[in-house]
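**Sequence with structure:**
===
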Amino acid sequence: MQSTFKTDLKDGLRDTIPITLGYFAVALSLGIIGKQVGLTAFQGFLSSYFTLSSTGGFAAFLLIGDNAPYVEMAIMMLVVNARYLLMGASLTQRLDPAAPFWHRLLIAQGITDEIFGVSVARKDFVRLPYSLAVIIPASIGWAGGTAVGILMGSIFPQRVVMALGVALYGMFLAIFIPPARKNKVIAGLVVLSFALSFVCTKVAPFSKLSSGNRIILLTVLLAGLAALLFPVPDDEPEPSLKDEVDGHA
């Protein structure tokens, strides 16, 4: 049975609660960094709302602090958030085939790791009411957390601000440590990325590059090396949701 508008809306609001709360908590640390690079709460809110990416927002704030050019920032965001292109391509298999282009465009704007996860887990087609019910509160939670973090950076003592700023790095550790423990290739790449990042800050000509360009270079280099040396074997393609629905019709 296909979901009604109210059912989609209810499911989306239910699924977005833990995502929104988690985004708000993590974004507080991002806001601390935003304060350190001179952003206002309004600027932090807008940048986080339209970026909707923890790694992308972190990288962007660092580039703002370095007075990097817009071109470098655009390339950085493309490289850091390239995984969303793959998530978007995968999510198209879960969308209602009758969904118009502008529906797909709005849904694509809000793809994050967590939103993608709850969307592909649905047993029915992903429709616009469900996606908006998940995306809008999560986006506000992320952007609001960033703005509150910036305000906290203006109020709290410097020691407290520095302690809160470390929390974002803790989130990154929580992201890559579990898969690194399960996969030796990922663990090796993590260690190698740390080592190369340190070396590139000390050795010319890489030390002459901005932090953004170094991140872009290392990301492309290590990702390409891993794909070449340790390709992921192709699995048996899974049937699309449309095939499953047609099969049970």
